[in-house]
Write a structure and sequence with these properties.
- The complex is a heterodimer of chains A (285) and B (330).
- In chain A, 80% of the residues lie in helices and 0% in strands.
- Chain A has 285 residues and is mainly α.
- Chain A has one domain.
- In chain A, helix 2 runs antiparallel to helix 3, helix 6 runs antiparallel to helix 12 and helix 7 runs antiparallel to helix 10.
- The longest helix of chain A has 35 residues.
- By secondary structure, chain B is an alpha/beta fold.
- Chain B has 3 domains: 48 residues, no CATH class; 211 residues, Rossmann fold (3-Layer(aba) Sandwich), CATH 3.40.50.300; 44 residues.
- Helix content of chain B is 39%, strand content 24%.
- Chain B contains 12 helices and 13 strands.
- In chain B, strand 1 and strand 2 form a beta hairpin.
- The chains are: A mainly alpha (285), B alpha/beta (330).
- At the A-B interface, helix 1 and helix 5 of A face helix 4 and helix 5 of B.
Chain lengths: 285, 330
């Protein structure tokens, strides 16, 4: 059991000492500064918007939800970038560079190694996503005095989404080279986002075909469904025209949501992890 | 007497003793001698009874990569404390054999056992130290941190004294706090050798001197000789014939995934005649052996020649190797 923590520590140190981590931190600081700037101007100007008397829209809720939704998208994107770059070369890439063989030759077991690398990368990504998510919430809260209806769950679901991507990237690292794996995971991520947007459009147009396709995509790529569910929860109490407009997106509704998708995401990550373990156990290095 | 037996066991296992340790009364010296004999006798008895397994036993080992046969029924043994060299052209299957023994590659057929445990299992890997042909350590680790990581993974309790000793063995004492990315390739190679020595059991060294300059090679060669003195088993995969000839007890030559020659360097060498140096110059008598030398000298003297020297010629490992592989290279 102690060797798993040795590898977790190894992965953790690798994560925080890579130049890429510094790049993500700089990008994050830049994003948070711009996000604060956007909040400052949006909430300053939102008071000047005059809504027609017969249109009942809560402008502050609309602006706040839109901005937090934007922050959640950026957080998910940066978290996925971090997760992919931390894990894209865990097996094949590290084996090609000669980093893996000295570790695998030790009496620790391949499954221990892979689980530990997942835990190390997952811990870094989860901490990162939660910090950036809550920083976004605090910025919107202090600048516009608006807080989401649900604060904790959306953050946890966002972190869960990034963990699902981490598991996919680890599986990819067993069978693909680093570059191919990076490209594959980002294409999957992009496909998930597009499916989510299509889902919003499908519901707005009430297109059964598009809604069906988006639902299948949500179950096939549950990181997207978790993100959408997080978006849903930040305005779950919004009603009337405000709620309807928010549901139209792009940072609004979720049509696969709640405990079923959360449980499926856990099962999905375990399934992907299991596949990665079996593939790694059979791989010649 | 009991102290003597303990000291005897220590001497047998190669644990260095200080002068003060051996300044013993006669009774204890006798005990030490008995201890030494007892350990040796036990060791020999155990080897003969089969209770101490060979460090590495490979039987009919085969490996296929698609349609390519990397190994075709290889048999090989590395006994306790034995230093065995693997030779062969590129693509002969040397690295594949080592990788199967270490558990990096799964065999397609046959069996490999490390200290009695199936190769690739945790029990087998617990007995191994491995230096890969191509390896790297994370650039942000210091030499000391690399060794500490491998100590923890190997379950070694040697702590800081072991790390200091290993770095000293590979002449890296001054670089203990230096980061890997600030080291030359040769230094990283020596650090790799030190890493493989954590735990110090059966060593699998795949081209350990490939990136070293002559001084670095000499350091590793001296280290191997020291390890042999301590009874550490080593499987050495190298292209450097002179190195193998100098340090190995036995040699196996692989070609096309098969062992084409095996034995001690002495067993593999063949007589290549006798060279007589007389007042007429040097003359080589083909086919003559060491036993013929006195007669040849006597005949030369009897025929009025002045004999200045006589040399029995045997083939070098290089000759044996070239003969075995037929000049093949990949």
């Amino acid at each position: 059991m102690s060797s798993i923590w040795v590898i977790v520590g190894y992965g953790f140190r690798e994560a925080v000492r890579r130049k890429m981590f510094a790049v993500v931190i700089v990008l994050t600081i830049g994003f948070l500064f711009l996000f604060w700037l956007a909040n400052h101007f949006v909430f300053r100007d939102v008071t000047t918007i005059t809504v027609p008397s017969d249109v009942h829209v809560d402008t502050r809720t609309f602006a706040g939800a839109f901005l937090v939704g934007l922050a959640m998208f950026a957080t998910l994107f940066l978290g996925v970038v971090l997760a992919v770059f931390l894990t894209l070369g865990t097996v094949t890439g590290d084996a090609e560079r000669g980093l893996l063989q000295p570790l695998v030759a030790r009496p620790i077991g391949r499954s221990t190694l892979l689980v530990a690398r997942f835990l190390g990368a997952g811990a870094v990504c989860t901490a990162y996503v939660l910090v950036v998510y809550f920083a976004g919430i605090i910025i919107t809260g202090t600048a516009g005095h608006w807080y989401p209806d649900q604060i904790v769950w959306p953050g946890l679901e966002l972190a869960g989404g990034v963990l699902v991507v981490t598991a996919l990237s680890l599986l990819g690292s067993v069978v693909l080279s680093s570059t191919a794996n990076g490209i594959a995971i980002f294409m999957l991520f992009g496909a998930g986002l597009v499916a989510g947007l299509l889902g919003s459009i499908g519901h707005a147009l009430n297109s059964h075909t598009i809604k069906h396709a988006a639902t299948i995509a949500s179950w096939a790529l549950p990181f997207e469904a978790l993100y959408q569910d997080g978006l849903r929860m930040i305005t779950e109490n919004a009603s009337g025209l405000t709620g309807f407009l928010l549901q139209l997106g792009p940072f609004g509704g979720a049509y696969v949501h709640g405990w079923p998708i959360r449980l499926w995401s856990v099962a999905y990550a375990l399934l992907v992890g299991g596949l990665a373990l079996v593939s790694f156990a059979r791989k010649d290095l | 007497m009991r102290l003597g037996i303990v000291l005897g066991a220590a001497v047998h296992r190669g644990i260095p003793l200080r002068r003060d340790d051996v300044a013993l009364p006669a009774r204890d010296l006798v005990g030490a001698a008995l201890g030494l004999l007892r350990c040796g006798a036990l060791h020999v008895a155990a080897r003969h009874s089969g209770s101490v397994p060979d460090a590495l036993v490979v039987r009919n080992l085969a490996k296929r990569y698609g349609s390519v046969h990397a190994l075709r029924g290889v048999d090989l043994e590395v006994g306790e404390g034995e230093l065995v060299g693997l030779l062969g052209p590129n693509g002969a299957g040397k690295s594949t054999l080592v990788k199967i023994a270490v558990g990096l590659v799964r065999p397609s057929g046959g069996d490999a056992q490390v200290a009695g445990a199936r190769a690739g299992t945790r029990a087998a890997r617990a007995h191994l130290g491995y230096l890969a042909e191509m390896f790297r350590f994370p650039g942000w680790y210091t030499a000391d941190e690399v060794l500490e990581l491998h100590q923890r993974l190997a379950g070694s309790r040697g702590g800081e004294p072991e790390r200091r000793r290993l770095l000293e063995l590979v002449a890296l004492s001054e670089a203990a706090r230096r980061r890997v990315d600030g080291m030359s390739k040769g230094m990283q190679q020596r650090l790799g050798v030190a890493q493989s020595l954590v735990g110090e059991r059966l060593l699998m060294l795949d081209e350990p001197t490939s990136a070293l300059d002559p001084v670095g090679r000499r350091t590793v060669r001296l280290l191997l000789e020291e390890l042999r003195g301590r009874g550490v088993s080593v499987l050495l995969n190298s292209h450097l014939l002179s190195e193998i000839e100098l340090v190995c007890d036995r040699v196996a030559i692989l070609l096309g995934g098969e062992v084409v020659a095996a034995g001690s360097p002495h067993e593999l060498s063949r007589p290549r005649g006798v060279e007589l140096e007389t007042d007429e110059g040097a003359r080589r008598i083909e086919g003559a052996t060491r036993e013929d030398a006195p007669r040849l000298v006597a005949e030369a003297v009897a025929s009025g020649r002045k004999v200045y020297g006589v040399r029995v010629l045997t083939s070098t490992l290089e000759d044996v190797y070239l003969e075995a592989v037929g000049g093949e290279t990949s």
